[in-house]
TrEMBL record:
It comes from Patiria miniata. This is Sulfotransferase domain-containing protein. One of its GO terms (molecular function) is sulfotransferase activity. It comes from the Eukaryota. The lineage of its organism: Eukaryota, Metazoa, Echinodermata, Eleutherozoa, Asterozoa. InterPro entries: P-loop_NTPase, Sulfotransferase_dom.
Amino acid sequence: MEKYVTFEEYRELFQKMQAMIAPADFKPPPNGEVDGIVLPPGMDEVVRDLKDFEVREDDAWIVTYPKAGTTWAQEIMSCVMHDGNLEEVNKRHTTFRVPFLELNLPEPIRRMKNMPHTHKIVAEMPSPRVIKSHLPGQLLPPQLWTKKPKIVYVMRNPKDVVVSTFHFMRMMDRSPTKQAETFAEFLENMLDEKCIFGTWWDHYLYFWRKRHEPNILVLQFEDMKRDLRGIVEQTSQFLGKNFSAETLDAITEHCTFANMKKNPMANQDSVFALPVDEKTGDKASFMRKGKVGDWRSHFTVAQNEAMDALIKEKLHGTGLTFDFD
């Protein structure tokens, strides 16, 4: 990435893109589809191009449904792949250390810096690469399933995913005609079969069914909250690293929610244009609360009952369960 832009330039360009975003950009139509999966504007073309993306056996991939714990897990993986050298980690923003494979700045903005698509930049990166994606398994580069690099997949209880995505979309919408969407309206859209990146249950179950494959590690956000040190050690061993207790402790401390939230190299707050609440004067944050059970302050009794019924229907017989508290 540094070959094309500095971090400061990237942030400026990203905020130009953010100013162009409207809520309708994340609802079908007119977004493109690939294999029945609705994708953000322009991403359908990228996904088709990814069919020829060259995967490397020493890659480390972090794949998640949006707002399921991506930033947290990618920071753990980046620290591990830097062999616990946190001084080196903090020299580069996470956006540059762990590129978002399918996310591109709009073409007019990329043209300003003569930037190619992100996946073409990733193709130029030296090994070992840590690569992030929100794509459902069937849309990921086909070589992922033949070369079998290490893949960490993180899932989060779907009620908190809905709430986190709701606040994220409010933060992202910087359009002049911004219109606040109620939580009820947002929930209905999130549970539509045509929501962006597909449904959470299809996304989760694709990897849940592959959880016993040796190159795939499935984690849950709730376990990361409960035992971060254990997850850091498990991830390190999965990625082929055998660290001392001291190194594991240092990575764990670096990756606590509180420390990441105040670290400009680990937090996307340093990229986004963040709105300020007119009533409280508080600035929004990409890393908002990072807690389990925030759904309780958003769901009505009826909404919760409907969500419980959906979860029971979609996960019946799979063995997949979640901690909601």
